[in-house]
Amino acid sequence: MTATGAPYADACSTEEAVRRVQRGVQAFLDNVGLVLVGRRETVTLLMVALLCEGHVLLEDVPGMGKTLLAKTAARSLQCGFRRIQFTPDLMPSDVTGLRYYNQKSGDFVLLPGPIMANVVLADEINRATPRTQSCLLEAMQERQVTIDNETLPLPRPFLVLATQNPVEQEGTFPLPEAQLDRFLLRLSQGYPSLEEELAIVERFESRDPLVELQPVMSAQDLGELAGLCRRVMVERSLRRYMLEVVRATREHELVRLGASPRASQALFWSAQALAAVQGRAYVLPDDVKRLAEPVLAHRLVLMPEARLGGVDKARIIAEILEKVPVPVT
Amino acid sequence: MSPPDARNALKALYGLEQCAMTAMLLVSLDAWLPPPPAAWLLWSLACLPLTWAWARLCLGRRWHPAWELAGGLALGAASVWALWRVSLPANPPPPEDLLWVRQGMILAAGVFCWASGWRLARVRLTRYRVIDLVHWTLAMLMVLLLPASLHGASVHLPLGWLAVFTLAALCSLWLVRRLEGPPGGNLGRGALAFGVALVSFAALTAALWLGVSRRLLAMFAEPAGAAAEGLAGLGAYLEGTVLWLVGLLRGGMLRGAAQAPPPPPAGGGGSAAGGLLAQGGSGMLGKALLLGLMALLACFLLFMAYWTIREILARMAASAQGAPPAVGFWRALCLAWRRCLEALAQAGRRLRALWPGGGRDRGQGAAVHLYQNLERWGQARGLPRRPGQTPLEHLDRLGAAYPELAGEMGLIVGQFVARRYGPDTQTDRDAQERARRAWRRVSAVRLRLGKRKPLTEPKDDEA
To answer: How far apart are CA B262 and CA B321, in angstroms?
Structure first.
């Protein structure tokens, strides 16, 4: 334990559990804040994904600090971290690992791939071919890989932090819907403000703060905090509200493929985690609305006319949120 | 008309009138206390069996003073129990306790109804009516002015109502004098007197409603509340009039003493007063039920009228601010019906809360109720909560329009969301009290006719 104190006790109340989560998350946020300037919202949502053991797709234009964010988050966690630079010539076995024939011993030996880690940074994931991208499907959902008919479990927690550049189209392969659906959240940071940019320049002027960054949370801590988040209360009418929002994406006229039941689960878990991160033992409709876009938008497949018309997925989600009545009375 | 008949008719009239006055008193209290006029409906429902029992025992064949005494003692014990829960010394007293005072007053009014029948047999009617008038004046002063002064609320509201009640009581006194005349007194003159009282009351109500006295009007929570109070009071008098006339017709009073059927045999219970309704036949229970149904219907219609007027005024206020109309007329009607049903449900919760140990969800009910008040308050100012808007988003909107009240509104909304979406734990009384105080500060910002506060809401929020 580095930041979260005593081991988890089943007997503690939900309020106490939530306070523990909040303390742990605060330590993580402060640690990440030593490297990253601003980006509080993105880092908070990243923490939500970590607490749900969900994968995150960081989507932004080049130079926005996607990789730095992923590396800082991974460094703050005391667990196995590997980085995979996705390129067009990357093979699935380069990711998952392979068995090779050892001439000295005379038998096949397993060479684990970089995916055998707690946190995997899949940098520029859309530069790999669909074949290589697809090798992540099993790992992301079932937390296991199959090499030569042998299924190997991945270490827990297992998180994929993928980055991609939404602007560059040359030499990239869009992620398949099945893989997009496996990402819990899609986060986008946007440009920093003038003051933030100035602070970035000054912070990295003489040294790289990432080098000195110390972990504040172990994999075990993260697992415990994730377990505590499951105790956050979601009132029954709010559960229905979440499902109504998800179902509304399927019925929208501009959406060809709406959010899946997996998205409903993702919304539910991430709302619990967000409430716990904020020190609340219950979920509010505001949590659902705040998470709706990061959880749902990347799972939607728009109609061709909507794509051609430049309709934004975020706008569709906002429209749905405005229409679906919030359970109040 | 024989004197006993007139006396019995007046007994019925007094009981009903007192019920109506208690109801109006409750509505007056509701104008500035958190609970809505649902209490009016609740009281109307509650007074039905009381009225029936009173009429049955005072005017029926089985009337006996001991029954009144037992009933009075039972109601008195209930009052003591209700008042025992009150802890007034805190300054300001907790509003929840004030509710108990009110409930105690309801029961005390019941005791008074019973006791009045007892006293009526012993004193002259005119003298009784004077005692009655003094009694009610003191009671209203106690119930209205004491909490008002403790809460720092304006005393003009109860004083205004006191003036109305006094005038109505004086007119009623004149009616009594007319009816108390020699045998065969003129019923038409009595009815005329009562009609005058009714018209005077209606005129005063209309004056309040239409804002002839702006100063008085401004003392109500809002114009719709004043209108509703006026309508409720008017309805109560109408109800009393109808019941009284029905009682006269059914009781054979118009047929005269000479044509009246013989009194019931002594074995059927010594009726000291003769029994007005008993002369009408054996269907006493059916008649009482009929009257009860009529009263219930009147209450329901009045309550609907109240909510309709509220919605329409809210719509007018919103359109005056340039905002799109929140609801149309028919939508307002539908909302009024829905609110009636909600009020019935709320009345049920209140009844449960009266039961020892049955008030576990009162904290939650109070939090929800305060938030609903805030929602209506915002709606009346052209800032309704959209269906897709969360309470906290609505709070941001209200806070932007009324920054000086943002803290108070935040307290109310915070308590509501914790109760609505959080685990159902026991309510912190201090938090409840803080929220109630916050609501009183918010509701003190009144919507004045012709002097509405300009909204400073950002335009992009409306988009």
So the answer is: 69
- The sign one gets for the Cα dihedral A228, A230, A235, A238 is positive
Q: Which residues of B touch A238 (CB under 8 A)?
A: 421
Flag whether pLDDT at B323 surpasses 80.
no
Written as six digits, the tokens of A254 are 């501009």
Give the C-alpha separation, B38 to B24, whole Å: 12
Roughly how many angstroms between the first and final C-alpha of chain A, as a whole number?
A: 43
* CA–CA separation, A230 and A216 (whole Å): 22
Instruction: Answer whether A298's CB lies under 8 Å from A180's CB.
Output: yes
d(CA A74, CA A219): 11
Q: How far is A280 from chain B (nearest CA, A)?
A: 9
- pLDDT tens for residues B117-126? 444 444 444 4
Look at the pTM and tell me if it is higher than 0.90. no
Report the distance separating Cα B208 and Cα B220, nearest Å. Answer: 10
Residues of B within 8 A of A18 (CB-CB) are none
CA–chain centroid gap for B96, Å, is 18
| Residue A22 to chain B, least CA–CA distance (Å) | 18
Tokens of A50: 């970590």
pLDDT tens profile A200-230: 888 777 778 888 888 888 888 888 888 888 8
B463 to chain A: closest CA residue: A322
